[in-house]
């Protein structure tokens, strides 16, 4: 009887050469235009080919305009997209460029194609690679020199991460979503609770989440300082993957599922760290500060920094409130907003758009509010249009955009103006993230939609 965590089991299966940092085999390497150019340049200079081009898949997501233009107005962004195209062509790597049916945010297209699979190792030059962990994969972000190493060898030198268990007990109450759960766990544990670990999310409330909800949760594991997060695969995982274009078929499918069923932590596995969170009393949340751990219930108030005993925390809270332009004690429901962004690899999948559209059907955004819906991929956009969601959004006064990272990080030009307040379904509310001086409040898609209608923070139940 072993006492291994799921992370250790998957890791062990991938060790090519043990060491202080192991050399591990990488099953899937995802690429985008922002973090890959130098890695390809390094290979070229060294005269080395890409070792396993068939195990790499690239997409254009961060730089792409989402307003229908064919090229970014920024010359640097246009160049980056062209360089990715050239690198993929020269190295025989599958690319989903702007405008193509498979294009989308890298963390949205991997799962939707059935490329993201249980028990695999997945890397990408992007911190939110953790999203893929929802399928029971070890998936984490890497730096440029590591991208080059993976391209050249299909392996990576990496320290085995410590396993952390985040056990979510109880049941999510109606109205509370996976995003609220992620924000709740972050508020409870803080943004360093998982530093250096790989978090296994488990417990009944996690099992009850859809695959898309699990992706939202794992996406935000990195905001707890973790290298990544994962969820052991189960029937929900298999049902999601079955029939996807790149998923195994026929006999291979049956074999794969039989193998995937063995992927779980042993009952008495030892975790380096543990956090237990009760989902039973969770309500929709909204961030008030400048890190994702600083959130309160939507029916709460802006906290008072003076209540913090720790001087460092107090100073950080004061600084956050100054940046956010908020006064302690203000009910969040009285805080007016200028922009609502529904998108990003956290919340731009079809269930997210359905949740937002359900709230917006037959309603209008408040006067003066700008609303943007940016689907995570061309496929999500297409599915949404088939269901008529695009018409719900446009009738409500939202802009219906082309897929990409967009206002999550603002490098494609979709930004929030200085001093403006944005209710955003993304994962980071750092200073300047959505534009210089922009004030970001992280919320779920349902809360974002209700907030757009009310013009101030609101939940669907408030409308
Ligand atoms: C541009 C990219 C490397 C970056 C990341 O690593 O996460 C971005 O996706 C982000 O979310 O800030
Ligand atoms: S959507 Fe945002 S968080 Fe996700 S990869 Fe793009 S920029 Fe990063």
Automatic annotation (TrEMBL):
Keywords from the named record: 4Fe-4S, Amino-acid biosynthesis, Branched-chain amino acid biosynthesis, Iron, Iron-sulfur, Leucine biosynthesis, Lyase, Metal-binding
Residues that coordinate or bind [4Fe-4S] cluster: 345, 405, 408
Needed co-factor(s): [4Fe-4S] cluster
Protein origin, superkingdom: Bacteria
Annotated function: Catalyzes the isomerization between 2-isopropylmalate and 3-isopropylmalate, via the formation of 2-isopropylmaleate.
Summary of subunit composition and partner proteins: Heterodimer of LeuC and LeuD.
Protein known as: 3-isopropylmalate dehydratase large subunit
Gene: leuC_2
């Amino acid at each position: 009887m072993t006492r291994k965590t799921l992370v250790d089991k998957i890791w062990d299966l991938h060790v090519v050469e043990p060491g202080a940092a192991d050399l591990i085999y990488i099953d899937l390497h995802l690429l985008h235009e922002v973090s890959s150019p130098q890695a390809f340049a390094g290979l070229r200079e060294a005269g080395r080919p890409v070792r396993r081009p068939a195990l790499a898949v690239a997409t254009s997501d961060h730089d792409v305009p989402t307003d229908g233009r064919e090229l970014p107005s920024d010359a640097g962004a246009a160049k980056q997209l062209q360089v990715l195209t050239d690198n993929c062509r020269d190295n025989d790597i599958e690319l989903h460029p702007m405008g193509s049916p498979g294009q989308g945010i890298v963390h949205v297209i991997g799962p939707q194609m059935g490329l993201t699979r249980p028990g695999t190792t997945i890397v990408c030059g992007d911190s939110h690679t953790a999203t893929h962990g929802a399928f029971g994969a070890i998936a984490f972000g890497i730096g440029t020199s590591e991208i080059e190493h993976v391209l050249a060898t299909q392996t990576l030198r990496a320290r085995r991460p410590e396993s952390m268990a985040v056990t979510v007990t109880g049941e999510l109450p109606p109205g509370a979503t996976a995003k609220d759960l992620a924000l709740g766990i972050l508020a409870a544990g803080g943004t360093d609770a998982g530093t250096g670990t790989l978090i296994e999310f488990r417990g009944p409330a996690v099992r009850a989440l859809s695959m898309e909800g699990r992706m939202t949760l794992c996406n935000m594991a990195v905001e707890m300082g973790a290298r990544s997060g994962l969820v052991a695969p189960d029937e929900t995982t298999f049902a999601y993957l079955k029939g996807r274009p790149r998923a195994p078929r026929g006999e291979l499918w049956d074999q794969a599922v039989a193998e995937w069923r063995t992927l779980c932590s042993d009952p008495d596995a030892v975790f380096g760290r543990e956090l237990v969170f009760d989902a039973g009393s969770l309500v929709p949340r909204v961030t008030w500060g400048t890190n994702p751990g600083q959130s309160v219930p939507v029916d709460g108030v802006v906290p008072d920094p003076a209540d913090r005993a720790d001087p460092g925390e107090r100073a950080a809270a004061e600084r956050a409130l100054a940046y956010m332009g908020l006064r302690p004690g203000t009910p969040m429901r009285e805080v007016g907003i200028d922009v609502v962004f529904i998108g990003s690899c956290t919340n731009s999948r079809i269930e997210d758009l359905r949740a937002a559209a359900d709230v917006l059907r037959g309603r209008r955004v408040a006067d003066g509010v700008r609303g943007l819906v940016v689907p995570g991929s061309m496929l999500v956009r297409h599915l949404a249009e088939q269901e008529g969601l695009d018409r719900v959004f446009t009738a409500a006064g939202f802009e219906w955009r082309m897929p990409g990272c967009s206002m999550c990080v603002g490098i494609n030009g979709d930004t929030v103006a200085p001093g403006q307040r944005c209710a955003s379904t993304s994962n980071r509310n750092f200073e300047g993230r959505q534009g210089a001086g922009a004030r970001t409040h992280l919320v779920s898609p349902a809360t974002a939609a209700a907030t757009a209608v009310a013009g101030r923070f609101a939940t669907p139940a408030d409308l």
